[in-house]
Structures are given as C-alpha cells and as structure tokens.
Design goal:
- The chain has three domains: 2-64, no CATH class; 69-172, Band 7 domain (Tetrahydropterin Synthase, Chain A); 250-294, no CATH class.
- α3 (109-128) crosses α5 (141-156).
- The strands form three sheets. Strands 6, 7, 8 and 9 form a four-stranded antiparallel β-sheet that branches.
- The protein has helices at 2-24, 99-105, 109-128, 133-136, 141-156, 175-247, 249-264; strands at 25-28, 32-38, 41-46, 50-53, 59-65, 69-72, 76-79, 85-96, 161-172.
- Helix content is 54%, strand content 20%.
- The N and C termini lie far apart (177 Å).
- With 294 residues, it is of the alpha+beta class.
- The chain is rod-shaped and about 175 Å long.
- β7 and β8 (85-96) form a beta hairpin.
Length: 294
Amino acid sequence: MNIRVAAIAFVVLVILTGIFAPQAFFTVDQTQFALVTRFGDPQRVISKPGLYMKTPFVDTVDYYDNRLALFDAPADSLLTSDKRRLIIDVFAIARITDPLRFRESVRDVQRAATRSTDIIASELRSEIAQDEQSEIISENREQIMNRVRDRSQSQVAEFGIELDDVRISRADFPPEVATSIYARMEAERKRIADQERAEGAQRDLEIRADVDKQATIVLAEAERDAQQLRGEGEALAVAIFAAALEQDPEFYAFQRSLDAYRIFLTANSTVVLPTDSDLFRFLLSPDGKIVSED
C-alpha cells in the first residue's frame, strides 16, 4: 500500500513539475535584458545572463535587446548659416540601457527609433543653421555631429536609450543647385584640360623646333665634312695626276686622248675638227694620214 502511494505521489510530482517548471523558470541570454512584471506592474530588471525563477502564472517576462541598433532618419533639406541649402541624411547608433524606462516611455524599438530620429533631426537643424556649408562637407563634419549627439543624448536618455554615435550618411546639394555646380565643375575641368592641351602643343612645337635645329646642324656639319673630304680627294687626285704627268707627259696626253675618243667617237658619229688639232695626232699614220679601218 505504501509503495503504491509513493508511486502515485511521484507521478503527481512529475506531472506538477512538467506543468509548473516552464512557468517557474526562465533564461536570460547575454544579448538581452529581462523585465519581470506582475500583472503588468514591473518587479525587477535582469541584465546578467543565466537561469532565473519567477512566480508561476503570476509573473511575466519581457525581453529587450541590449545590442547596438541602427536608427535611420529620413533625408531633410536644411539651410546653413551662409544661406545655402543641403540635403542631409543622418543615422544614429544606439542601445537600450534602461529597459524599465524604455517600456514606460516608448515600449517598442520602432517607436523609439521614430522619436529618437525626430530629436536628432531637430538638433541637427539647429546645428546646421550655425555652420557654413564648407564646414559641413569638410573634415569639421565629425565635430559637428559630435555636438548633435551630445545635445540629443540628454533627451533620448528619457527613453532609456544611449546614443553611441550620430553620423551623416549623405550631404548633397538640391537638384537645381547641383546642376549648376556640376556645370561649373565641368567648365573648370574643361578650362584646365584646354590649358594642358595648349601647354602640350607649345611643348611639342619647342621640341620639334629643337629637333629640326639639331637636324639642320647635323646636316650642315655632314655637308661641311663631305665638302672637305671631296676637296681633299680632288687635291689628292690632282697631285697624283700631276705626279704621273711629270713622270711621262706623253703617255698622260695619250691616255687623256683615248678617254676623249671613247666619249665622242661612238657608232655612226661624225666629227669635224681641224687637221692640225692635237686631238687627232694619235689617229694619224706616220705619213700624216688619218688611220682608217679600211
């Protein structure tokens, strides 16, 4: 009988454990906050991961992500201090630090993102109105956004949120202004390109002129050397002829006459010269008559 009662009690205990255990225990991940409420009334906030107990069927656990989240604000047209308009798109990186305050103020991430970006956009508009366009699109942009983040933090903290960073993802000119700016940029680039082309053409002319000058000098020097060599060659030839003439003037005259005969005594040619010409003396026979092939 006692064994039967113990068995029944054990079975009942197992059944009750299976029913009540899921309601009595809960886990918290390292990426979460847990907020325990009792009939909607907050009881405690758990920020450390682990296994925890709660009152079954009475307590409820709400979880909130403690990791960084991206809040992206819509692009807005803002006026700078120098009366120039810019289309600026900003985003913020934030995290939930106080789940209880977060639950009481905004309840969900979507509403928190909307209200936070509204605050950031308002502070950004005030800041941009005090800065010049050149400062916003230059390296001073980081300092500007740090000031926006610091001023927005005190307001966003009321939602249980901490801003980690605020940055500009895009800062463009309005379409009508961008068109004129691009036109000026294009004209400036064209002016620079035309200037470089003109400088290149001038340099090309200088190089060509210098090359032509060098070529003229080289040709002149070559012609001078050639004339000098020709003169030296002719002088040497004259000296050789003179030396040959001195050795045997008669043979030299004979050689020159043969060269003349070879030039003008061609086939079917007729030559009329005085009979006492020195040119014919080598064509005469010993008796004074012209030598004939007949």
